[in-house]
Write a structure and sequence with these properties.
It contains ten helices and no strands. By secondary structure, it is mostly helical. It is elongated and about 60 Å long.
């Protein structure tokens, strides 16, 4: 099952959620045990086992779903507050890049356990990721673009973020709003906005 699908999810105790993220950031998914999570959370193993069905796999799936929900909620706040198409694209790209770069558990997995992440975002699965991102972002862009163009712009933004995240460039840092704005002004907006005729 893809982490991008939306099955019924258990509501995790915040202590268990935070403990799981700390353990994964420290040791990775492979070496983290439910006993480690219980110790880190200051609760019993039974509490961890009861909190989520499916053992460790179920716990990791629930944590991923929770993190994605939080990411999209915060991204939505940024996009909702944007006052222009340029601002929405810049805020969306900068926030997404900052979130990815600052997520300690994700960064550990990408560095030391890429096999835990890449199957969910590579090759054909990338289309799923882009479709979810575009479907989420596009409604925020229809204030300035027709629906089809908004969907295309949202997908472009997601592609750009993932591209620069996986293969950084010396001259572009999307986590820096000024750098993201230069990229959006120079390359993205000209492909979306028709210049007004004089």
């Amino acid at each position: 099952m893809s982490v991008l699908e939306a099955p019924a999810r258990p509501v995790l105790d915040q202590r268990i959620l935070d403990a799981t993220l700390r353990c994964v950031a420290r040791w990775g998914v492979g070496k983290t045990t439910l006993e480690d999570v219980a110790r880190e959370a200051g609760c019993s193993r039974a509490t961890v086992y009861r909190s989520v069905p499916g053992g460790k796999d179920g716990l990791i799936e629930a944590v991923v779903a929770h993190e994605l929900d939080g990411f999209f909620a915060r991204l939505g706040e940024r996009l909702d507050a944007a006052s222009s198409l340029e601002d929405a694209l810049v805020q969306g790209m900068a926030f997404s890049s900052q979130w990815l770069a600052n997520h300690a558990a994700l960064q550990f997995m990408l560095a030391y356990e890429p096999e835990t992440v890449l199957p969910h975002i590579a090759f054909r699965r990338m289309n799923d990721v882009l479709a979810v991102a575009a479907a989420f972002v596009a409604p925020y862009l229809v204030r300035w673009l027709p629906a089809d163009d908004a969907l295309r712009a949202a997908e472009w933004g997601a592609r750009i973020v993932l591209s620069y995240t996986s293969c950084p460039a010396d001259d572009v840092d999307l986590a820096d709003e000024a750098s993201a704005r230069r990229l959006v002004q120079t390359f993205v907006l000209p492909g979306l906005v028709t210049p007004t005729s004089k």
